[in-house]
Amino acid sequence: MVMVLSLIGIIINLPITALSKYMKLHREEINYSRENFYVNEAFIIIESEIKNAKYVDIKDNMIILRRYDNKGYDYIKKNKGTAIVISYGAVNSSSVNNILKNIENFQLERQEKVFYVSIKMKRGEPYRRCFAIEREKLREDSY
């Protein structure tokens, strides 16, 4: 009787262990997919803001966007915490929108008419995208 119960326990335990491993793998894949989606959405938002700006500049690890209405600048930057934000009207404005949270690093690198945006997530996944600078400022304005 003890042997039968032991065999039944082993037979029942094998599928439970396999299911547990599958569920863990599935959760990791969902988290990776969700993170990938949010980062791609952040890149789409950044691209949209760049296209809607009168001109663009990169300075102090910020994307500086001149508004078409000539009422100032908007800034895309990493805030003091772990988020990429759009700051409206001033570098440290109280009017901000979060673009992406839970980032570890946000880095901008300019090379002539192109700049690269690198985002490293807290989980360690790095993402990188390049954007063209179509319109630059022609005269010296202060940010």
Task: Describe this structure as you would to a colleague.
The protein has 143 residues and is an alpha+beta fold. The chain has one domain (2-132). It contains 1 helix and 8 strands. It has one helix spanning 2-51; strands at residues 55-59, 62-66, 73-78, 83-88, 96-101, 103-111, 114-121, 126-132. The strands form 2 sheets. The protein has a 5-stranded antiparallel β-sheet with strand order 1-2-3-4-5, with helices on one face. Strands 6-7-8 form a 3-stranded antiparallel β-sheet, with helices on one face. Strand 1 and strand 2 form a beta hairpin. The relative contact order is 0.14.
Strand line-up across the major sheet:
1-2-3-4-5
Count the helices. How many? 1
Give the C-alpha Rg: 24 Å
Give the CA-CA distance, first to last residue.
83 Å
Indicate the percent of residues in helices. Answer: 25-40%
Mass-distribution shape: elongated
Order of SSEs, N→C? HEEEEEEEE
Largest sheet: 5 strands, antiparallel
Report the uncertain regions: none
